[in-house]
Amino acid sequence: MCELLGMNCNVPTDIVFSFSGFSKRASEHADGFGIAFFENRGVRCFVDAQAADQSPVADLIRQYPIRSTHVIAHIRKATVGHVALENCHPFTRELWGRYWVFAHNGDLKGYDPLLHAAFRPVGDTDSERAFCWLLQEMAKSHASVPTPEELTRTLRELVPQVARFGTFNFIMSNGQALWAHCSTKLHHLVRQHPFAQARLQDDDVTVDFAQVTGPQDRVALVATQPLTDNEDWQAFKPGELLAFVDGVSLD
Amino acid sequence: MCELLGMNCNVPTDIVFSFSGFSKRASEHADGFGIAFFENRGVRCFVDAQAADQSPVADLIRQYPIRSTHVIAHIRKATVGHVALENCHPFTRELWGRYWVFAHNGDLKGYDPLLHAAFRPVGDTDSERAFCWLLQEMAKSHASVPTPEELTRTLRELVPQVARFGTFNFIMSNGQALWAHCSTKLHHLVRQHPFAQARLQDDDVTVDFAQVTGPQDRVALVATQPLTDNEDWQAFKPGELLAFVDGVSLD
Questions:
Q1: ipTM exceeding cut-off 0.95 for this assembly
Q2: A40 touches chain B (CB under 8 A)
Q3: Is A2 designated active site?
Q4: In chain A, % of residues over pLDDT 90
Q5: For residue range B129-141, what is the model confidence (pLDDT) as tens digits?
Q6: Can you list the domains of chain B with their CATH numbers?
Q7: How many CA atoms lie within 13 A of A196 on its CB side?
């Protein structure tokens, strides 16, 4: 499975993680995983420092089809930070009365930003430092929750200041929009009615498009690697940041 | 089951929620539940707006013995705030690079504090407002994580300013200590070696003391109502705030 996966839809959609491929890749991604689902303003975040094939939390997620408009998932191979619950993505913080969820793929070398405000890392990963710095700077730029368009402009100014330290592929959401940035590898796909296939499926993840049948329904997926080989996945350009709202890119 | 339950131990201890009593009380506490487990600096929080007898998340917790030194659980009967995921206790925020978890039992009437700093409620409960205000004022009182003793003194100044608005029984933890405040009803018990009973058990919760066998091992439990009828549960006095560290009260 991809290291990063994001889903943004205009109607709550089931996403089921079968984890059948997790055990195959256990040696590669054995250092934890996490999945966050927004339900309106609330968020449900499952993280585990155990590999997915040994985790009761993974069992739950495999059995529990959660309907959500915004999903962020991450499989962790530890590169910076020791293996511990507090280092598992996605990370969650509150800003402007909204929860923000963030997952990162890549390494930031020598990244030690000045964190002088309200957001401090709990663990010791470069990823959580970057998330705290983004929130700190976002809080300076807006007095309350900006529109997705406004925040996209802000992020396009902020993100390059982090990305120059290394590889900064990330997905972030506040339950209103889903932002994705590519340093090296990230793909996206928008599926709309009529859906050629009833289900999108690989070894690890199933999105039940049978729930999405109206002519207005749309699902945007963002993943490190394409999840299917017969659809028109678009590669992000290096340095590209996109925002998805209601299952479609704002650009 | 009690509406609030807290556990603080000096060694990680299994706590298992059988939920057998939840369904009996479904009409009374049908508006969600939540449980947070600290694992060192990390925290694992399970919340659900569904009643526990209908929730796959409850199934997970029933089957999954999580070893933790600090646990906070809450069963919700909605009084203020609509039934939604974002209104489920416990609430979590980060301050000073530590996660803080908070659960409240009671009502605060007309409580609308000035929240001018970094902590804003996501939902619409009086409980989350009180938690945000406490964190805001704690952040003004200390530049970094205070000792449990220092924070206890601060909380004893702050908490009465909230409690005068109504009923403010709460449990809070940052994974280093567990604080509990009583307005109307809260009990505590410290169990130490040698344990007279192998297991503490009522309809809803089992703490496996078989894991806790050394002469130094201690478990403090805080609950709205005593969980057993043959042990020396102490009632909190109205207005009393206690801090528990390593399974024992600081006072």
A1: no
A2: yes
A3: yes
A4: 56
A5: 999 999 999 999 9
A6: 4-249 (3.60.20.10)
A7: 6
